[in-house]
Structure formats: structure tokens, C-alpha cells
Amino acid sequence: MENAPVTVAIVGSRIEAELAVGLLRSHGLRANYIADDAGGLEPQLQQDGVRVTVAPDDEAEARRILADIGDD
């Protein structure tokens, strides 16, 4: 699957993922997140983190944007 989403970050919660996705989308990237937490009903299931994903074409730019916020 060459068009499958690519994971660019794993964060600790759905809220962090939503913030990261919002940032990436504000830069025009196609971003989403995947949380194995029963649709938010079982947040304790997020122990393995929440994956932030982007389209394969957006991977390099997404990693650059996320790295920039880590430098602040």
C-alpha cells in the first residue's frame, strides 16, 4: 500500500494528538491520528500512545514542523 498513512509521531494522549494534527493541518498537510482507546471511552488504553499520521507525500514536511516545535 503505497498510499497508506505514515506515522510521524507517537504522543501520550488524544489531546496531544489533536494539537499536533491541528498544527500540521494549519500548514496545509493531510494529517490524522489513530488512538486505540475505544473511541475515547477507554483512555487508559492509550498506554502505547496515540499515533499522528500523514499522507506519505507530507512525511518530510510534517517531521520538520514537529521537530521545530520540539526545539522551542
Descriptive account of the structure:
It is a single chain. The protein has two helices and three strands. It has 72 residues and is α+β, with helices and mostly antiparallel strands. The chain has a single domain (6-70), classed as Alpha-Beta Plaits (2-Layer Sandwich). Strands 1-3-2 form a three-stranded antiparallel β-sheet, with helices on one face.
Task: Based on the model shown, name its key terms.
72 residues, alpha+beta, 2 helices, globular, DUF2007, N-reg_PII-like_a/b, DUF2007 domain-containing protein
Helix tally equals 2
Structure classification: alpha+beta
Tell me the fraction of residues in β-strands, as a range. Answer: 15-25%
Order of helices and strands: EHEEH
CATH homology superfamily: Hypothetical protein rpa1041
Amino- and carboxy-terminal Cα gap = 35 Å
Shape descriptor reads globular
Give the mean pLDDT: 85
Secondary structure: helix percent = 25-40%
> Order of strands side by side in the largest beta sheet?
1-3-2
User: How many domains in all?
Assistant: 1
> What would CATH call the class?
Alpha Beta
Q: How many beta-strand runs?
A: 3
Low-confidence stretches: none
Using only CA atoms, what is the Rg? Answer: 12 Å
Label the CATH architecture: 2-Layer Sandwich
CATH topology name: Alpha-Beta Plaits
Q: How can the largest sheet be summarized?
A: 3 strands, antiparallel
Protein name: DUF2007 domain-containing protein
Domain DUF2007: 11-69
